[in-house]
């Protein structure tokens, strides 16, 4: 998908009269009966989609005519995925795509085809490069750091050079391409930081695996003292979360099922950090976890630093003696069951 696009309209002149522009196409394997042409306008800090026009597909074909007075950044949306188009007054643009391979199948013809085929290729190249980064940087070892950093720099430089070529051929979209170049530079730093963090975490994991976890001591939902060691005797899933955390709450139904499924074999301990006690006392009971601990800022800080808790939700697996089996386990919606079965000797 053509992600990470800054949605905007480029005004080429201070005064211009509108002309009819035509956007048509053919969609194979359509997701739904209707397709949309939309743009985004800023309301406060949010970009809000505005439907410019919609049309019902006729055997996969569509045609939209719209009045434009300048080169505009618009978005074609099929109800599932989207792609950006750049259409000027009086231009025509024809799109063909197959939703089974959305970005890979996009092709344009018509008077506005040049810049749009270029932008589609840039978006696809960006997606491919980012997938390559994810594969190259996954589980990288300290010995490979220099090679990984060189790979990141080389690939980002390739994207930047491709954007530079576009600037020469399509100067009318200079604003967008310059913004993309800034984004590529930012991503270079982001991936470099991710590699360094990954290496640091793996060194920490190697040092801490098999060692007893530090005590977690706070309060329960009755505001009485509670601590992690009270649950020793069975393997433990430690769930670090907060009431304001959307991804945490997404995982909760999955974790609830695991708690019920492994009842009597595994303890699930819900540990709230980075939250206000009043919010936790109000919000936590609705989830029904048996074992709850709330930590204030002072209580959580040493754990956060020692165990590299940079974000939540974060899950850790301990054996029945409280020793660390997984410093960062899989999520309940993912492979947590498999890890628990391995601890219990059931796989």
Brief digest:
With 347 residues, this protein is of the alpha+beta class. It has helices at 102-105, 113-137, 145-169, 174-208, 246-261, 277-283, 297-306, 336-344, and strands spanning 19-28, 34-43, 46-56, 61-68, 72-77, 82-87, 92-98, 107-109, 217-219, 225-227, 236-241, 267-272, 291-294, 314-318, 324-326. The protein has two domains: 19-193, no CATH class; 217-344, 3-Layer(aba) Sandwich (Glutaredoxin).
What does this 3D model show about the protein?
This protein has eight helices and 15 strands. By secondary structure, it is of the alpha+beta class. It folds into two domains: 19-193, no CATH class; 217-344, Glutaredoxin (3-Layer(aba) Sandwich), CATH 3.40.30.10. The strands form four sheets. The protein has a five-stranded mixed β-sheet with strand order 13-12-11-14-15, with helices on one face. Helix 6 (277-283) links the parallel strand 12 (267-272) and strand 13. Residues 1-15 have low confidence and may be disordered.
